[in-house]
Inverse folding.
């Protein structure tokens, strides 16, 4: 049986399903901003800047310890470019994954789906990640005075890919943790493993085979390598595999979306 | 039309499974009003939540090509930290309704006074139900779901609610869950009985009432 277009009593023309989805996502987005901002909308700026503060703290610690950058002359730029993808992945994924729990009562309304909630939060976090990246580049440009990327476009694509990865990672892990709540504990551990093997603590090009080949499976390392190779003129990017990163991310997203209905069925049986 | 196709709903309780709906198929026509009878715990409210889309069946599909309300008066979707006004704004946007019109209507209808701008967590259950009922009336659905258990409010509010509902009924159909034969007969022309996981259809409401009275 095919459903006829849904129309509102106070609207003259039928509303397409896509328009309904857009209206629902917009409504959730505005509600999310209101709830996270607290009584004043300025509070939302603080929420957006939280990842930047996290990033600056990590960089300050590394600077104080006196870690020497294996590439380039500035440790702030090298470690900044290394930690930025991790901070985006960590904060975006956490926020997107927690959105279902925070907005569960919304599923009472038959127009709202889990995907609407995830997309609304994903849009919000993506905007946050873009703002944080922009401010971070401004800050290191002011601080180091030697900030001159080789390929701005490549850097923007690397950040876009990190945002895409964080959304897909969150969607597929939300699906798993809805069915198996204990999975949430493993995710935190998993993100730590991703961080430790992402090339922040070691120089990936210096890792011998076959270990380097194994490390290359880490999608976060791919984001870091993409960002570094776009910044430096002579960065050894032998581990960088952009088709792999995009394929991995797309498969995660597809699994997450395709499994949503299945997860709801399993949850209904519990 | 709302069509239930091979719907099965099972709840897991301690040490056993409770089959609430067992392979139920039925079509609710928009031109009729339906009353669903059944003993306590038969799954009438569950069936209403499934039709509303607030809950998912274990198997089977529900097709809706009309705008279906949530069970009338049920305030499950409100965010407790947000004010009544903010909740209305959000839900109006979801349904693509005119936010200003909905707020004006519910503010007048629910008579919450200054509570309208206070967080919903400060409301009594009756106030939350009034807000939910008013919102349901403001949004205008094609099919209203009525769970008689959720009917709340003082006699004055009940009268207002009945008047508003009668207005909507002229343009919309309804599916009612009830123990009260009188109420169901006043509103509905078709009767169904939910019994041991099966939905028994009787056509005219009198036949359903006769079966219900004889067996329960």
């Amino acid at each position: 049986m095919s459903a006829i277009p849904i129309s509102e009593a106070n609207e003259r023309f039928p509303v397409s399903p896509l328009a309904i989805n857009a209206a629902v996502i917009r409504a959730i987005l505005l509600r999310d901003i209101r709830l996270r901002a607290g009584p004043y909308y300025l509070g939302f700026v603080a929420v957006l800047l939280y990842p930047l503060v996290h990033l600056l703290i990590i960089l300050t610690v590394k600077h104080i310890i006196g870690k020497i950058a294996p590439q380039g002359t500035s440790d702030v730029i090298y470690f900044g470019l290394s930690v930025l993808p991790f901070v985006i992945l960590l904060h975006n994924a956490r926020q997107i994954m927690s959105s279902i729990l925070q907005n569960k009562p919304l599923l009472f309304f038959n127009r709202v789906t889990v995907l609407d909630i995830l997309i609304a939060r994903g849009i919000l976090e993506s905007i946050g990640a873009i703002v944080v990246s922009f401010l971070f580049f401004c800050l290191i440009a002011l601080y180091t005075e030697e900030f001159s990327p080789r390929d701005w476009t490549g850097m923007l694509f690397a950040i876009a890919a990190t945002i895409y990865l964080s959304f897909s990672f969150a969607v597929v892990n939300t699906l798993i943790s809805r069915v198996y709540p204990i999975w949430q504990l493993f995710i935190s551990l998993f993100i730590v493993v991703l961080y430790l093997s992402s090339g922040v603590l070691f120089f990936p090009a210096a890792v011998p085979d076959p270990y380097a080949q194994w490390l290359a499976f880490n999608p976060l390392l791919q984001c870091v390598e993409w960002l570094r190779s776009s910044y430096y003129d002579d960065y050894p990017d032998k581990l960088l595999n952009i088709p792999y990163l995009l394929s991995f991310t797309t498969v995660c997203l597809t699994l997450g979306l395709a499994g949503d209905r299945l997860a709801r069925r399993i949850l209904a049986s519990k | 039309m709302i069509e239930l196709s091979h719907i099965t709903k099972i709840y897991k309780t301690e040490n056993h499974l409770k089959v609430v709906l067992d392979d139920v198929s039925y079509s609710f026509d928009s031109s009729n009003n339906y009353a669903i009878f059944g003993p306590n715990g038969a799954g009438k409210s569950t069936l209403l939540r499934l039709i509303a889309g607030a809950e998912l069946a274990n198997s089977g599909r529900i097709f809706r090509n009309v705008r279906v309300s949530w069970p009338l008066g049920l305030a499950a979707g409100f965010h407790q930290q947000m004010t009544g006004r903010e909740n209305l704004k959000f839900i109006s946007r979801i349904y693509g309704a005119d936010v200003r019109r909905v707020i004006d209507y519910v503010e007048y209808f629910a008579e919450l006074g200054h509570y309208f701008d206070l967080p919903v967590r400060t409301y009594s259950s009756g106030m939350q139900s009034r807000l939910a009922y008013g919102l349901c009336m403001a949004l205008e659905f094609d099919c209203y779901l009525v769970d008689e258990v959720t009917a709340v409010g003082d006699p004055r509010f009940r009268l207002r609610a009945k008047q508003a509902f009668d207005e909507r009924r002229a343009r919309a159909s309804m599916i009612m869950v009830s123990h009260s034969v009188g109420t169901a007969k006043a509103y509905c022309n078709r009767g169904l009985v939910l019994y041991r996981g099966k939905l028994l259809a009787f056509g005219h409401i009198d036949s359903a009432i006769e079966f219900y009275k004889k067996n329960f």
In short: Chain B touches chain A at residues 3, 9-10, 12, 52-59, 63-65, 67-68, 70, 76-79, 81-82, 86, 90-91, 93-98, 101, 140, 171 (CB under 8 Å). Residues 107 and 113 of chain B are 8 Å apart (CA to CA). Chain B has a mean pLDDT of 85.
